[in-house]
Every structure is written in structure tokens, then in C-alpha cells.
Amino acid sequence: MVNSIEVNEQAKISTLTCIDLSNPDVQSSVSLLKQACLDSGFFHIINHGIDDEFMDEVFAQSKKLFDLPMKEKMKLLRNEKHRGYTPVLDEHLDPVNQIHGDYKEGYYIGVEVPDDDPDANKPFYGSNMWPSSDILPGWRETMEKYHQEALDVARAVARLIALSLDLDDDFFDRPEILGKTIATLRLLHYEGRTSEPAKGIFGAGAHSDFGLITLLATDSIFGLQICKSKDAEPQIWEYVPPLKGAFIVNLGDMLERWSNGIFRSTLHRVLGHGQERYSIAYFVEPSHDCIVECLPTCQSTENPPKFPPIKCESYMLQRYKDTHADRNSYK
């Protein structure tokens, strides 16, 4: 059994760089972040401004949702805007190696866009699905507050990333990037099933994230693994230890494309070890219309762009289609 105290003797543990967002020496933070992005695409951030008591409340409210009877959760089933509840096996992140989908359930909460707003017609904007306040009082207010505070943290991290790529610190704050971001909060609950990689059973299959960055908060249970050398055979997987009060940050595919492959969107997965596990992911993607193409600071005659330009909306729609069950299968 793997937990915050005891780890299987054969498990490899990854040591992540820890970046203090309150450090007044910005250049020192930029240097640390850049090296982490070159090495693994994963790092910890501390002193990010979201206090521990509030994080504990977010986790408590998340558990209350997943503790609801299945009948109540299915009333909130993920809609066409990818908002709401996703049952166990709904997501299938690694179809090559998984015999079933992921042994986790989740809940998507996006940026709230009123139905009468013209942007609500876009695939990843719209109104959220909220559990009744009679069933879960205060739940919506907690999640909306967390959504906004996590976005503030993500913007702070994005400024450091911009500087590490020799860009102006507000590069990612532009309207076409994070001005109308597709930022998605996803609550996650892994059931107590033990993963068996050799048999294709995973809490979450191996994958890279889709967008700019992801902020991940976890409980004290081990489970997250990263593979720093995705082309190595055999792949070497290392556990990322939980760190109380810290976010695990990882880079997404779009940042890898922006940086011409210099920064890495690293493969990661989750293994279950017979214990329930909760985590809270905050995925930060650009606006629908953002064109992601190689940055001028990341290309040269000797190092031309490796990826063609892509529109964020098109890329996101394809990735969701590839990794999620057809909603019609639940009818």
C-alpha cells in the first residue's frame, strides 16, 4: 500500500524543483522554472496565495459531491460543453495500453459564461452545471471562489514562463491567450482499486495535458507518476510525492508547441494502491481562437519550427473526442 509515509521499495521517487511565488528575486525563480521545464516539465510551487484552510474546504466539498448516490450524480452528467460529472471509465487516456477506461470519476467546472453572451456558443464556454444548494449548500460558492483564485495563481506562473522564454512577462496575459482562457477546474476521485499496469488497469492512463499549464492539488496519497523520457524503452516511471500546501505544475502540449519542443509536455499517469485518492486539477488553455505557433525566441535557421500552427479550439475538440466516452452511450 502506498501512502504519504510508506512507499513500495521498488518505486522510484522524483524530486521536483520547488519555486516560491513570494520570492522577491524574480530572476532566481525564472532560472529555477526554466531548468525544471527543460528537465521534466513538472515542478512544485509554494506560497501561491491560496491558504491551506480554504484548500481543505475545497477537498471536503469535493468529497461531498462524490459521496452522493450515483442517481444524483448522473443527474449532473457531463454535457456537450464538457461541464459536469464524469463516471468511472468515462475517460480513456491511453487506449493502446488500457483495457478499460480510467478508474476515476470527475467533475468539470469551466469559466462561467451566461447563456445570453455571444461567446456561449463556443464549444468550451457556457454555463456550468451545479448541484442543488439544497443537497450541497455552499458548494457552488466554494468552487467559484477556488476557480478564480487558481486562475490568479496560473497567471503568476505564466508570467514566469514568459520570462523564461525571453518574452515580455505579460505575453500570455494577452486577450487572445489568457484574456478569454478556457480554464477548467476538475475534481477527481480515484476509487480504491489497485492498478495493474501489466494488465492494462490504471487509475488514469498515460497522457500529456492539452493546454498551457495544469495546477494540481492532491491529498496525501501517492499515485501520480511521471515519465521524463517518453522515448526510452522500457519507460521509467517515477512517483511525484505529495507536498502539503503546494501545487504540482506541469506543462501542456500547447506550451511544448509554442516553445518548439524546448519545454516539455511530459507523460504522466496515476496508479491506484487500494486506497481512495482525491485530487483537484486546474487546466489552463488559451482562448478558442488562439493560434498556437512557434515563438520567435524558440526558432532559428538551425532550429526551424517543428510543429505547424494550430487553433486552440480545434486541438481541444479533437483531444476531448479522442479521450472521452460518447455521451450517447449513457442513454
UniProtKB/TrEMBL annotation:
Keywords in alphabetical order: Iron, Metal-binding, Oxidoreductase
KW Amino-acid biosynthesis (keyword) present: no
SUPFAM superfamilies: Clavaminate synthase-like
GO molecular function: 2-oxoglutarate-dependent dioxygenase activity; metal ion binding
Superkingdom of this protein's organism: Eukaryota
Gene3D superfamilies (UniProt xref): B-lactam Antibiotic, Isopenicillin N Synthase, Chain (2.60.120.330)
Fe2OG dioxygenase domain segment(s): 181-286
The keyword Oxidoreductase appears for this protein: yes
Pfam families linked: 2OG-FeII_Oxy (PF03171), DIOX_N (PF14226)
Gene Ontology BP annotations: coumarin biosynthetic process; response to molecule of fungal origin
PROSITE patterns linked to this entry: FE2OG_OXY
Family, similarity comment: Belongs to the iron/ascorbate-dependent oxidoreductase family.
PANTHER family membership: 2-OXOGLUTARATE (2OG) AND FE(II)-DEPENDENT OXYGENASE SUPERFAMILY PROTEIN, OXIDOREDUCTASE, 2OG-FE II OXYGENASE FAMILY PROTEIN
Name of the protein described by the UniProt record: 2-oxoglutarate (2OG) and Fe(II)-dependent oxygenase superfamily protein
Naturally occurring in which organism (per UniProt): Abeliophyllum distichum
Upper taxonomic lineage: Eukaryota, Viridiplantae, Streptophyta, Embryophyta, Tracheophyta
